Amino acid sequence: MDLGIAGKKALVCGASAGLGYACAQALVREGVDVLIVARNEAPLLAAAGRLRSVGAGAVQCVAADVTTEAGRARIFEVQHDFDMVVTNAGGPPPGDFRDWDRDTWVRALEANMLAPIELIKATVDGMMARGFGRIVNITSSAVKSPVDGLGLSNGARSGLTGFVAGLARTTVARGVTINNLLPGTFDTARLAGNFAAQAARQGITPEQAIAARLAKHPAHRFGQPDELGNTCAYLCSVHAGYINGQNILLDGGSFPGVY
Predict the structure, then answer these.
(1) Of all helices (H) and strands (E), which one includes residue 109?
(2) Residue 6 above 90 pLDDT?
């Protein structure tokens, strides 16, 4: 299927690895010119090199912290007008809410709620003026099914979800859709690190921790980043103009509810 987006311009955050990289790769394959962003320059440059080998869309990169005003300014110095924005940030650490002070909450909100909102604010009016735009926020399945111990992520990402639900209804008539992707367990380096930490806490091997999780998973496997990346690319396509304000769960059926 031709997604109809060749030559358009996209900003993809957290794109040096994992799910952000998979989204950037799927867009580049469709001929989209992509600006990828991450905090650490060395892995970002390596990711940009790999993406250029795809040979379709052009690739630029900016090492920046999008949670800061200065970091966002660095992005928009390189390019200001985007047809697509994919927001993505790693979740805050787990823990007991009794141990979190105000600064801990503010850091979580800045990364997983306020920074995406600032990026949307900086780009959405231009998209509406041009009559086309796609904003995709990578959040978490915890928005649909909150996880005990992940209160920082549950709270901050749910705040972004609520904000998007209102804004999306005001932009779609002018060609701009805003949706959220809610990944469950995907086979990324971050997931491997989480299993290593879990195994250390429980006194087992990472392989045992993974086996225990997979035994309870309906698909008996983890998601592959390309599966989410391709879904993101479709949401950015000309064919997805009637999908708006949605929270799209990619978890292999782990969520037990009907709705």
Answers:
(1) helix 102-109
(2) yes
